[in-house]
Amino acid sequence: MKYYLGNVNQFLAHKNKLEKAVQDFMKKYHRVLIKETEIVKVKKTIETAIEGLNIAYPKCTPLNPGWWTPAIDKADYKDWILGGVACVRFGFNCSKEVTNENS
């Protein structure tokens, strides 16, 4: 099984309350281990939460979250990077296959 590690690379200066709220939300996923089977669900949860924060702060410029992967040549594993959110540099780093040697 493969795992993904949430990683906040950098927080940039927030311009408004929406960006500050997104930064606070993304802190929850820093250094969190996610199973490969759960990654799609977690990515969707993050997108939905940011879209909800867009609604909560209607006077701020809305953020358009999306995911991209730089792993074109790595068919066996892909890292996922959060795009469309300039106030935080966040990604899920994929592990290689992890096996239990005791089984």
Structural account:
By secondary structure, this protein is of the alpha+beta class. Helices cover 27% and strands 25% of the residues. It contains 2 helices and 5 strands. A 5-stranded antiparallel β-sheet has the order 2-1-5-4-3, with helices on one face. Strand 4 (80-83) and strand 5 (88-94) form a beta hairpin. Helix 1 (17-26) runs antiparallel to helix 2. It is elongated, with a radius of gyration of 15 Å. The two termini are 14 Å apart. The model has no long low-confidence stretch (mean pLDDT 91).
Topology at a glance:
Elements: E1 3-11, H1 17-26, E2 33-35, H2 39-56, E3 66-68, E4 80-83, E5 88-94
Antiparallel strand pairs: 1-2, 1-5, 3-4, 4-5
What would the keywords be for this entry?
103 residues, alpha+beta, 5-stranded antiparallel sheet
Task: Put the structure in a nutshell.
The protein is of the alpha+beta class and 103 residues long.
Query: How would you write the strand order of the largest sheet?
Result: 2-1-5-4-3
Radius of gyration: 15 Å
Question: Mean pLDDT across all residues, rounded?
Answer: 91
Biggest β-sheet strands, sense, barrel: 5 strands, antiparallel
User: Helicity range of the residues?
Assistant: 25-40%
Overall 3D form? elongated
Uncertain stretches of 5 or more adjacent residues:
none
What portion of the residues fall into strands of 2 or more residues? 25-35%
Derived structural class:
alpha+beta
The H/E string reads: EHEHEEE
Note the total helix count: 2
Total strand segments:
5
C-alpha termini separation: 14 Å
